[in-house]
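Hey, can you fold this one?
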Amino acid sequence: MNDVRPTPHPLRRRTLFGGAAAGLGLAAVAGAAPAGAHGRGRTGAKDLLRSFARPGTATAAGFRWWWPNGLVDPREVEREVDQVADAGFGVLEIADVTHSLNARGIEMDLAQHGWGTPSWVRGVKAALARGARRDVRIDITVGPSWPAAVPTVTPDDDAACTELAHGQTTLAAGATYDDVVPAPVIAAAATSTRRELVAVQAYRDLGTVKAITTLDPASRVDLTDRVRDGRLTWTAPADGAWVLLSYWRRGSAQEPEAGPHTDPPSYVVDHFSAAGSAAVVDLWEDRILDRELRRLLRKAGGHLFEDSLEIETDATIWTPLMLAEFEQRAGYDLLPFLPVVVEAHEKYLFAFDAVTTTRVRDDFNQVLSDLYRDHHLLPIQRFARSLGMGLRVQPYGLETDTVEHAALLDVPETESLGFKNLDDYRVMSGGRDLAGHTLLSCEAACYNGAAYNTTWDRALQTLNSIFAAGVNQCVLHGFAYADAPDVTWPGFAAFSPYYNGAIGYGEAWGPRTPQWRHMPDIAGYLARTQLVLQTGTPKHDIVFLRQKGWTSTGIGAPWATNVGIPTGWTHSFATPALLDLPLARVQGGRFAPDGPAYQVMVIGPDQFRGAERTMAVATARKVLSLGRAGLPVVLLGDWSTVEPVGLAQPGETATLRSLLAALAALPTTRSVLTDVELPTAFAALGVTPAVTHETSTVMHLRRVEGDTDLYYLANAKHAENRKLVRVTQDVWLSATDRSSVPYLLDAWTGTVTPVAAYERDGDRVRVTVDLLPGQSTVVALTAPARGDRTPAVVASTGTVRRDGSRVVLRATAAGAHSVTLASGRVVRTSVDRVREPVVPASWELALEDWQPGSTASTTVRPVRRTTLTTLAPWSQLPGLEDVSGVGRYRTVLDLGRDWTDDDGALLELGEVNDTFRVTVNGDRLPPCDVLGTTVDLGRRLRRGRNVIEVEVASTLLNRLRTVTPEVYGVAARQAYGLVGPVRLVPYAERSLRV
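Sure. Predicted structure:
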């Protein structure tokens, strides 16, 4: 969960002055592989093809596992690990989340069952032991809920989260102030009892516009030393009004989300000091870890996990050593500039001139970013690795360099709820890729108000889209522990009801939801897709070097979004910190040739600071060296007036402009004023996309392993609110090996089949994709099977497929048919007849009606039966309006005596809600793509009588509308079941010798 501040703020600065401190850690840790289960390396192409049918748990998706703190039974914990493993998932993240209990006013005995208590530890041990047996990785949050917090500090401790609160008063010209130092304008939390005066200053007031008061920086008077026993006497000069400012350091008293989770309460630690991370580590070492738990963590522990960086204060985020840290890292004293970084309720109140104000805020935020890296992420990561685990973090929520932090983490994580569009994911994948790491995780398929009503049609459209943006590990939101005090059917759900009594966030997957019946099919699809996306090395066309590494902003690369991606271009992002990584070199005109192998770097304006052109001198030197090594660079906008990042020091501007002029003069550099000119610049540099197609919503991700190219293609949504239509088009794919042929990898069934219809032009291969909204497919370009010389089909009058060395033509109409081979030879055949489509006359429906049982976590499932001559949603069928559950539709079709072995059929199901399975004559078909409701029955049909069964599972919403109307009654009924129209569409096939 995430409540990211929407206001864009500051930047990435690597100064000439504090660089040694600011730069420590990243290059040193980026290539370090974590140990244990979390350190899974890239899979080779041959391994992928061997394991694609049965991928196992190594690349399986997982769940956030919501616990009611430590009120868990080890036997139930073991049972739930088994449920997840049996469904085909491979990760469980233990997270204490109790929003729903708080919403109902339910109190727990936290001394007995709080986070970190012996009962919680017993549950964790049970999970780890069972996880080791079932090959399920167990991740654990570093503290109760989020952000990281411990019960061993109070708000007054230096290790606790800290804020800088300001006091102020206005004095007329010549007026005297004789009083106690102005108290903070924002009152302290009740539990924050200690405050320390940091400074007292006075500035001339130049006026207030739109709640921002402009101060004269040259007028500053430091009054700190004049304070006596808490009082100040000072007379303002006689020229103009003056503002008297005091600054107080104190604990913010922030508690983790939905607390308390412990007794005594936990308080959020200082994420910007060594004391804060030490408090987390000390708690684990002193109160949680014992020999048995350490042993179990090494067997089944995956990652320690932290949610997004939601440091919340109505004052200014601070840390006790901020002034000293700032001077060391930014190279100047922050005290004279304190007014421009002061905030109240997340809004700035004071400003100097525009340039100074902007630059100081940039420096301040960059120092916070570096402190978060050096004093929190890296120490917690070292601790996790000492346990044989890794660290998985959502390193965003403030104006920090998420790109850099994604590069140093064992696993960076994104989230589908808080991210605005796909470029938010690409921002983080850029850090992962340039660090040479494999995983980019996602807190996935979480929607506001979607508890017990999330359909897999919706979830897969989200997942398939974010996969195209670089995500390759899903942690679904989520799986809830079975029970908790005073909860109602179907059991404990972490987020529903929410605080206002409304339907909460996300789904509570598990046996309590009817769709769980079909979850092995979903799990297999996700595991295979993630297997592909974790194999080899990602390759991209363009890298955008941006000044700031913020994400969850929706700000990306406008040209790429609007023009580039729709025609086949791919892109990613980097910030200056990544240019120091070992992979960041140039060879053959490619940047990071052993990694993403970018063809061109685009350097544009700062989209977070009014399109300013800014760059650090060290960054300019690095980019110039890359350009001189042969990297094509495009400068977007007028860089002749470039300004340094942060507050400029003497001589820095002239040096920077000289370096940019040298960069612009290189033969491998082009300068354009607007992004409309980018394609012209790329063409002049000889840069072309690896994939081309007509403008559409098809997106792709390319990964290369040896001579094998893996292409994940999806009809994807750039943002959740985008609407999609079916796309059928040709796509040209680049091949590493010119002898490669295309194979189709079906992530639903696990089959790998050669593509019959394709065309080659040099190192490019044309294939046709047909993708419904949100659908995906995988095409591999690899060496043909030994002895396979089957020619490609470049045109045909029907669809074609391979059957060994033969080509099979499928016809939906009688008459003459032909295929044209790559050599130009035409092979002809004829089809005497194709049966007309058949519409089932009636269906027998047996519907499990899921209802509350004898306990909150028990479900009874009486079966209701009816005969339908017209298909309709359950909500429109008499007596079934409020039913949720699993429906089994059965129809009998008599195909007569003239059905032959050459006949096959497609079963067009039309609208189906939600997951479904199909059985023909007692033979269950392989898993069906939820997004594509036309199923190929192949040759499973026979002469005469045929029985077709369709099993459909729903969400639980419609029943909950009647069981808990005070929460779910506001929602409209969902349409469930097989709605159709349904047709059986026969075809005929002919095997052709080519």
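Confidence is low (pLDDT under 50) at residues 1-41. Let me know if you want another pass with a different chain boundary.
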